[in-house]
Amino acid sequence: MNLDIRTAVVTATILTVAGIILTLLSGISTIRASHRLPFFRKRRDKMMRGWRLVFSAIFLACLAFVLNRFAEPAIYHFYPPTPTVTLTPTLTLTPTVTLTLTVTLTPTITNTPSVTNTPSLPLSIINGFEGKVTPNPDAIFSPLVFAQTLQNFQPVDPKTEFAIPVGHLYGTFSYNNMFNGSQWTALWYRDGVLVHYESAPWSGGSGGYGYTDWNPNPDEWLPGNYVIQIYVGTTFKVGGQFTVIGTPLPTRTGTLQGNPVGSTTPQTTINPLTPSPVTSSTPTGSASPTSSVIVPTNTALSTGSILPTPSITPNS
Question: What pTM was estimated for this model as a whole?
Fold first, then answer.
């Protein structure tokens, strides 16, 4: 049986309290019984034994207070806690993303914007949630690390500034205490405008390594400040920033083979630091697929379902 430090301290405290009660009752009973003895010496010895039991109960009470208040922090000082990673070798990455955006073309703009310091998910993405499991509020994610190449699920040559053309970009992280079937979401912003997102039920196990990625057409990488936000359910967990520099590539004239020309529809945009919604126009349509993969530690890479990103044919 595995017994963690907190459980051991609580158990010791409960046993000490039980000892206090038994010792105190025994001491009081002994003192009362001494009054019924007719002989002075026996009465004095029995009374002394009773008071010793009472003082022992007082000492145990002090010990219980010290155990409950100081034992656990003192133990953690010498044995720092480390998260336990549960390896799940059977990884099935089959996220199903339903792109049913409900955008209202009647924004309400006031002169008193409501600004909050906590990022939040757009309502249109929340409405598309498919997770059936309540997210674990104790789920944790490491800070995001950005790279254009992965090796054994680890970023190669990570950095925070990339030159156009960027190509395939990964935002990698480690995680723990996740529940399979709970919803997770990754939002990609460029200068406050939502340019890419992925949201699906989690299937990467309790702990391990994962990433969110984006591989758009080369001309879709524009210079600016990019922010990635990771959510579990509707709770913001971690964010990261990187910068893209350089001159944008010319927009390609034509469409990918087998893909129709994209049409322009409005899309909700959120400022990552002050996520009050405004609207802007972003083209949507068929595009080359990208995917997000969550992999537990020491397991083989599996191919996930694809999430479409837009390709654009400009007007001449």
Answer: 0.46
